[in-house]
Structures are given as structure tokens and as C-alpha cells.
Amino acid sequence: MAEAERIIGTPDIPEAAGAEPEQTDQSAAAGERSDAQGAQDPAGSQGSGSGSEEEAAASAEPSRGKRRIAVLFTVAVLAYALDLISKMIVVAKLEHHEPIEIIGDWLRFEAIRNAGAAFGIGEAFTVIFTVIAAAVIVVIARLARKLYSLPWAIALGLLLGGALGNLTDRIFRAPGVFEGAVVDFIAPKHFAVFNLADSAIVCGGILIVLLSFRGLDPDGTVHKN
Q1: Burial of 185 (0-12, 13-18, 19+ CB in 10 A)
Q2: Average of pLDDT values for 178-187?
Q3: What dihedral angle (degrees, nearest 10) is formed by the CA atoms of 160, 161, 164, 168?
């Protein structure tokens, strides 16, 4: 019997031996699949990296815009404060007094009330110039929402500070609201008398013209004509 069982049981041995290569083939196939997934992972990680860069760039835009707006209002506040303080000193110390010579006859300080626009232009249109100044302030405030250029922020800040300085005179000085005369005191030889607000407006305007010639827009883009 033992001999018969041995003879009958021998065919099972090759089957068992044949099972091992099959398992080996399955292991090899699993390894190939893992290698393929590993080859795809770097591409996926690169895609996620580029997505992170795009998100970072998108989040940086509002931050950059806020900084430019902060620059605009900082310049405007400085220009307005300097103009207001200088006019207060001129009214208190120089009005109804003799002019003060700074550089001989070429430059002197002389207190003058100006009912017109900058440099004494158009004294019969005080109300119109007041409305124009107010409109300029509104336009600058609207432009600030799309401001991403530092030079434009400085230029608009100068315009805003100068417009606010002269508008304050128009509203609060005699002879009445919206008809007030602006205080001018810088008197170069052979030139109209002006103030610091006028200077800020002119400097801001010149800077805007230069930026426009260079093709730089307030949003930071550059175009070529």
C-alpha cells in the first residue's frame, strides 16, 4: 500500500512545483504596476507644484495692490499736510506783511489770496475749479482699486494731496463755501505766485505724462503704441 500511495501521489508534486512560477509571475506583474505608478508620481507632484505657484501668484496680486494703495494715500497725506501747514504759517506770519526775500529778487515769499486756478488762472470761475478738483479726487479714488504700479501710485498721490489742499481752501476760506480764495505764497521772479498744492499737482501731472509716454498703465502693464 505504501508503494501504491507513493506512486499515486507523485503527480501532485509537479503541480505544486508549477504553482511557484505562477506566483512569481504575479509578483513580477505587481512590481511592474508599482513601477509604473512611481513613474507617474513625479509628473503629478510637478503638477501640484505648478498649481501651488499659481495660487501663490494669485494671492500675491491683492497684497501688491494694497501696498500700492498705501503708497498712494501716504504720498497724498504728506502732500496735503505740508500744504496745509505752510498755508497756516503764511496766513499767521506773512499775510499783511512785507514779502520775504529768499534768493534776492529771484524768489520770495508773498502771501496772496487767489480765487482762480493754479498760478492765478481764471479767477472768475472759482466754483467750476472747485467742482473740477472734487471730480479729480473721485476719479483718483476709483483708479486706486486697480492700481498695481508704484510710479502711478506716487503720481496719483501727488495729484490727490494737491487737489485736497486747494479744495480745503475753496470750502473753508473767505468769501464763502466753494468760492474760497486759495492761499499762494511762492513768488518766483517773472512768474505767477503758487503754493505747495500747485507744485504737487504739477509734479504729479508731469510724472503721469512721462509714464504714459513709456506705456506704463496704472495696473502695472506695459503697452507699446
Answers
A1: buried
A2: 90
A3: -170
Q: What is the pTM of this model?
A: 0.70
User: Is 187 strand, coil or helix?
Assistant: strand
Instruction: Give the integer Cα–Cα distance in Å for 119 and 192.
Output: 5
Spatial CA neighbour of 196 closest among 221, 169, 224: 169
pLDDT digit string (tens) for 18-59? 444 444 455 545 455 545 454 455 444 454 555 566 665 555
Name the residues annotated as catalytic. 184, 198
pLDDT cut 90: percent of the chain above it: 46
Q: Say if residue 198's pLDDT is above 80.
A: yes
Nearest CA to 193 out of 132, 98, 108 is that of: 108
Give the Cα separation of 168 and 147 in Å (integer): 26
Question: What CA–CA distances, in Å, run from 195 to 24, 54, 115, 125, 214?
Answer: 93, 48, 13, 19, 29
